[in-house]
Amino acid sequence: MGNNDTKAAEAASQTDLSQAQIAEILAENARLKARLESSGSTLTLKPSKSGGLSIYGMGRYPTTLYPAQWLTILDCADDIRKAIDVGNSLDAFATKGKSVTRDEHELELIRGAFAEAMAVTK
Questions:
Q1: pLDDT digit string (tens) for 63-84?
Q2: What is the pLDDT of residues 35-72, one digit of tens each?
Q3: CA–CA separation, 113 vs 25, rounded Å?
Q4: Domain assignment of residue 118, yes or no
Q5: Whose CA is closest to 52, among 31, 34, 73, 32?
């Protein structure tokens, strides 16, 4: 009977250890999720094989451009911000979780209003 008691105690100890490990893993998972949600997505930059610069973290695939192309975009940063503000005011853009499908007529109206508003803001 003593041998059975020892085996039962060992089995209980292993079960407790497994439950403790599961609890620790769940706690770590929750901490990592909270950190990810609080920091937003992390962007990373890496040189590409083709000699470009890739930015990771904005979507499923990286965006890769040559350095001169990145500099051109950076030079237009204020215009891009204005265009985003105008587009948001016209409800022209899709957002995460909200897709947008428009017919050609509606798209032309939005593009006209967008061009008008962009001309006014310059």
A1: 999 999 999 999 999 999 999 8
A2: 666 666 689 999 999 999 999 988 889 999 999 999 99
A3: 53
A4: yes
A5: 73
d(CA 115, CA 121): 10
Q: Which amino acid is at 89?
A: S
Residue with tokens 């007529």: 105
Dihedral Cα 34, 40, 46, 51, nearest 10 deg: 150
| Structural domains of the chain, count | 1
In a domain? residue 45: no
Torsion of Cα atoms, 114 then 115 then 121 then 122, to 10°: 150
In this structure, is residue 42 part of a structural domain?
no
**Adjacency order of strands within the sheet including 44-47:** 44-47, 53-56, 63-65
**Distance between CA atoms of residues 43 and 58, nearest Å:** 7
Residue type, 118: M
Q: Which residue has the tokens 């609890």?
A: 23
Task: Tell me the residue range of the domain where 80 lies.
Answer: 76-122
Three-class SS of residue 48? coil
